[in-house]
Amino acid sequence: MNPAQNVVTKKMILVMALCLTQSLITHSILNKFHIHVINGFSHGEILEAHSRSKDDDLGVRHIPAYGEFNWTFRTDFFSRTKFSCHMWWTGGEKYLDVFWVDNKFLSNECGGNNCRRRSQDDGVYLLLFSYHHN
């Protein structure tokens, strides 16, 4: 292979690598995500929540009735960010993942950049929102 072909080949490989990582870069650099943990108990009970990722421990939060705890972040460069929460109340407890980077989760379950989890008398649920596109 002559030097000119070698340069072209290297440029093509670089372009292909950038295309393959485009969605990863888009998530990590351009998008801010918002997580909401909402206390929806009807009897005024406090919801306790301890949320964390591999890199960030948000501590234990005492969420009053009808209140919420929320935070905003960007994913790491390789879009590996995952947040989990341990939630507990008088009637039970729940361990769950509240955020991870997956196109299906983000578009279908998380509603884009806002993920909402709400406690109710019968458990903790992901709140789904429908968006109307004009």
UniProtKB/TrEMBL annotation:
- From what superkingdom does this record's organism come? Eukaryota
One GO term of the biological process aspect: rejection of self pollen
One Gene Ontology cellular component annotation held by this UniProt entry: extracellular region
Transmembrane domains' residue ranges: none
| Broad class of the protein's primary localization | secreted
Protein biosynthesis found in the keyword field: no
Where is it located? Secreted
Q: What span is annotated as the signal peptide, if there is one? A: 1-28
List the keywords (alphabetical). Answer: Secreted, Self-incompatibility, Signal
Enumerate the PANTHER family for this protein.
PTHR31232, S-PROTEIN HOMOLOG (PTHR31232:SF154)
The record's similarity note reads: Belongs to the plant self-incompatibility (S1) protein family.
Task: From the Swiss-Prot or TrEMBL record, give the protein name.
Answer: S-protein homolog
